[in-house]
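Hi support team,

I submitted a single chain yesterday and got back a structure, but I'm not sure I'm reading the token output correctly. Could someone confirm the output below corresponds to the sequence I sent? I've pasted both exactly as they appear in my results page.

Thanks,
R.
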Amino acid sequence: MEAAFYTASVIAIAATILTITRSNAIHALLYLIVSLLAISVVFYTLGAPFVAVLEVIIYAGAIMVLFIFVVMMLNLGQRAAALERRWQTPAIWTGPTILSALLLAEVVYLLVRGAGGETAASVVEPKQVAMVLFSKYLIGVELASMLLLAGMAGAYHLGAQQRRKKEVQHATGADEGRAGAGGDLVHTRTGGSAGAP
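Hi R., thanks for writing in. Yes, this is the structure output for that exact sequence:
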């Protein structure tokens, strides 16, 4: 189990670094999926199979498929990749490098000191997760659900508002087109009648 834990950890770190450094959005998302799958293996080796399954189904499955679908619908192409390369100047890596170095130093310190202990802990069943979530952390779960509901309602409201604006613009443009065509017709008729003897 320890070998699987460390292998999955290294794969997760490498895939995350590749996610950050890729300029192509689809390639970055694919590396992020690999990172999330590796993290699910880490959870499984730590004795949390329920969280590992949720990681695969929700994050690597549903959310990442949605991200890929949105990126493909936007059709960013080579222009967006070139813009991303231009943004990735050496100066922007200073903060993430410092934070990553601190985190790596902490991990090395814990490994050398031997504070990690056994990687395979007791298995946490879904029943235990549900009992803790809906007893001790009930208010937090309810607040999170209300926040998600508010976000969903806000997204629907903004989407409906944008759709209404587009419909109004489309209708206004069509009316102007009809008015322009009618005006030309009237002008032609009046011009022809005025010029006739």
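A quick pointer for reading it: The chain has seven helices and no strands. Let us know if anything else looks off.

Best,
Support desk
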